[in-house]
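Possible regression after last week's pipeline update?

I re-ran a chain I had predicted before the update to compare outputs. Posting the input and the new output here so someone can diff against the archived version. Not blocking, just want to make sure nothing changed silently.
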Amino acid sequence: MTFARWMFGLPLAAAVVMFLVLIMSGLIRQEATIDPPRSPLNLSITPKIEPTPPETLPKSRPILDETAPQPVIPNWSKRQKVDPVEVAPPTTIDPPKGGPGGPVSVKPIIRVAPPYPEACASKGIEGVVLVQFDVTPEGNVANVKVISSPNACFNRAVIKAVSGWKYPPDYRDGRPVARYGVTERFNFQLTQ
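New output (post-update):
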């Protein structure tokens, strides 16, 4: 069977190759004419802007009213007030041992009260927000978490304000150490 395949397949393959060689040589011998280069297509995807004829333009400008409209300012019936409440440090914090300069306070050096969020004030939402955070050995606030909040509209303002606080370093054995689990309360109340 294999001999029969070779006997018929080899001459057939040779005939096909010779046929293709003759066709290619005929194509090569022909003189090809090169078409002259075509001009590139000029496509425009934006509309043509025609200049406005002068006779269709207005002769003069319209006169505007000289008085500006009065802005609409909502009249809040309640004023905003943020009262940060001082709380004693949690029991997880050791009392300050003192450092090179003497005893260290657990109260922040830089403390900015968070603003009363407008979203909460406009809805009349009040309440106490409790946050917990860590103080790095350098005295910066890190890992701020809201533990309880009457509404999520307070969270961003409290986290942003507390993140900017600065504490004095806490020393143990003469080296500054971190404080973990410091808690603060913020009492948001609208005043009449």
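Follow-up from reviewer: compared with the archived run. The first strand starts at residue 79 and ends at 85. Marking as no regression found.
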